[in-house]
From TrEMBL:
It comes from Gracilibacillus thailandensis. Keywords: Membrane, Transmembrane, Transmembrane helix. Residues 42-139, 216-311 form the Nucleoside transporter/FeoB GTPase Gate domain. This is Sporulation integral membrane protein YlbJ. The chain crosses the membrane at residues 7-26, 46-70, 77-100, 120-141, 148-168, 211-229, 285-310, 322-342, 368-390. The keyword Transmembrane applies.
Length: 398
């Protein structure tokens, strides 16, 4: 009976979306173009190099090397193996859903147990500095100082999520105990891992490119899908109806009800929601709180991407979703606490130590983001062309 109910729900939702696409073709086209623009100009060119390099690092045994070195740190802090340090670092640098992809990849390599992978994916799927400072702070708010506050909040709250999730299935026995720092053992593990991979260098390079681009194509599909879904919900007034309930909840925290609809948009798709929050007429603190929560929650678009990646393994999605709620709670609290000591202090003087250190990094991130906007589409087309060539050659060999 339960499965029949699921069948009816899935079929009804599919029919509803198909009907709405036919009913609002112009609005759907614009939403699709908006999603495609974000994916082709920013997401694809910014994530592809990280994905390819990560595949190479796994193939050449560097991840095993990192795993041995980071074991004395990652195990006591987060109750995960040392290879989690690689996923954590790459996840922060490249942004979501990289943490999920690398966790799933290491689970497939049997370097993580099922429970360890569920702990790891819960706090390694973060936004990257390029998006937080380049797109949100500079692009939407036109205020790079806010980007510093949002970045500190996002990564600090994510760290606390990792600390909390270390207690997930805490009594389950670990596969190995904490090891001591050893360069020799790390090099040995690297060598053995490389030897076990029987693929030729050309094969490794080709597989790295094709696997990375295939993942990014799936990500692009989800971005466009949820961009369209958000627009459909607006057109049929469902979004406005739901935002009415959200506005009641926001009023409990003294947040204006007008921000309910932008928050709902962010719950579905981060970029759209953050842009609408930035355009709203409200105080900077209120908008910083909502954007921090949106970034922490990841949005259903990113969560769907994560779910599709985890579906290839035995990693459960539920711990990751719970961690997103926890991340949103921590982010809202921390951004409120740090608003005055970080953001206000940066506004009052440019001679503080934080501003002196952060300003060059912010300028660099802004330049990189502008470069992606200008050259991203050309890079994406070139990468897809290379992908087709490699794919055709692989099929010829078969």
């Amino acid at each position: 009976m339960k499965q029949k109910l699921y069948s009816i729900i899935y079929a009804s939702v599919s029919v509803f979306m198909a009907t709405m696409i036919i009913t609002f073709p112009q609005e759907v086209l614009k939403a699709s173009q908006r999603g495609l623009d974000v994916w082709a100009n920013v997401v694809f060119p910014s994530l592809l190099p990280f994905f390819i390099v990560a595949e190479l690092l796994i193939a050449f045994g560097v991840v095993h090397f990192i795993g041995v070195l980071f074991e004395p740190v990652m195990r006591p802090l987060f109750n995960v193996p040392g290879v989690g340090g690689f996923v954590w670092t790459m996840g922060m640098a490249s942004g979501y859903p990289s943490g999920a992809k690398f966790t799933a990849r290491l689970r497939q390599e049997n370097q993580l147990s099922k429970t360890e992978a569920e702990r790891l994916v819960s706090f390694t799927n973060a936004s990257n500095p390029l998006f937080i400072i380049g797109a949100v702070s500079i692009g939407f708010f036109h205020d790079h100082k806010l980007g510093i506050l949002l970045a500190i909040t996002h990564y600090t709250s994510n760290f606390f999520v990792g600390i909390c999730m270390r207690f997930y299935k805490y009594h389950e026995r670990n596969r190995q105990s904490t090891q001591h720092f050893s360069i020799t053992k790390a090099m040995t593990q690297l060598h053995h891992a490389r030897i076990r991979d029987k693929r030729a260098l050309g094969k490794i390079l080709g597989d790295s490119v094709t696997q990375s681009i295939q993942t990014l194509l799936v990500i692009g599909g989800f971005i466009i899908l949820f961009s369209v879904l958000t627009e459909i919900l607006r057109e049929v007034q469902i979004a406005q109806f739901i935002s009415g309930g959200i506005s009641i909840i926001l009023s409990w925290f003294q947040i204006p009800g007008e921000l309910a609809l932008p928050l709902l948009s962010g719950i579905f798709e981060i970029t759209i929601g953050a842009n609408e929050v930035a355009s709203a007429d409200s105080s900077t603190l209120i908008k910083a709180i909502l954007v921090s929560v949106i970034l922490a929650f990841n949005g259903f678009s990113v969560q769907a991407q994560v779910a599709s990646i985890l579906a290839e393994t035995d990693i459960q999605f539920t711990p990751y979703f719970f961690a997103r709620l926890l991340h949103g709670l921590f982010a809202g609290i921390i951004v409120t606490i740090l608003y005055v000591p970080v953001y206000k202090s940066l506004q009052t003087t440019n001679e503080t130590v934080i501003a002196a250190i952060a300003q060059p990094s912010v300028d660099n991130i802004q330049q990189v983001y502008l470069m992606f906007e200008q050259m991203g589409f050309i890079f994406t087309l070139s990468a897809l062309f290379i992908y087709l060539i490699i794919l055709m050659k692989q099929k010829e060999r078969l």
